[in-house]
Design a protein that fits this description.
With 159 residues, the chain is mostly helical. It is built from seven helices and no strands.
Length: 159
């Protein structure tokens, strides 16, 4: 989480930000193998902590994280197979929903006006693409360390 914030705040390609949001990649993995209530709680806590490192209210990030978790959870229940293409697709849609929801809350509820095309096209879309392309590696990493077995052993996995 901290690396995503540091690299996106300090490094970019021109005006495009491409460093992936690793918290969303982890959220997509969690939603694929975790039940609805433990996953919802874990995503809220994860994004609340993520939001506490930003100048906005952390509860906003918690809300946006749970909305993204719901989208990812529904996607994983509708897609019958698990491969790299579905991981990329689920991560892209989840990330895009995350940034679109965050944008709508900040723009309309907090009344912070900025160029929305600039945010969506130079930040939201490139970060969503890079997050989606990185997600198969995150899945591979979690599978290698046996996180799915940990979830099964502790009966947190969705059956």
């Amino acid at each position: 989480m901290i690396l995503s914030l540091i690299f996106n705040n300090n490094f970019s390609l021109g005006s495009f930000y491409i460093f992936p949001n690793l918290a969303i990649a982890g959220l997509v993995y969690i939603s694929a193998y975790l039940g609805i209530y433990p996953g919802w709680l874990m995503s809220y806590i994860l994004f609340y902590i993520y939001g506490s490192m930003t100048p906005l209210n952390p509860a906003v990030f918690g809300l946006v994280g749970t909305v993204s978790y719901a989208v990812s959870y529904i996607l994983w229940r509708k897609i019958p197979y698990d491969n790299a293409v579905t991981e990329i697709l689920a991560a892209f849609i989840t990330s895009w929903v995350y940034y679109l929801t965050l944008f709508l809350i900040v723009f309309y509820c907090y009344d912070i006006h900025f160029l929305y095309w600039n945010f969506l096209l130079s930040y939201g879309f490139p970060v969503s693409v890079s997050t989606a392309l990185l997600t198969p590696m995150v899945f591979f990493f979690f599978k290698k360390i046996g996180y799915k077995n940990f979830l099964k052993k502790n009966k947190l996995i969705y059956l």
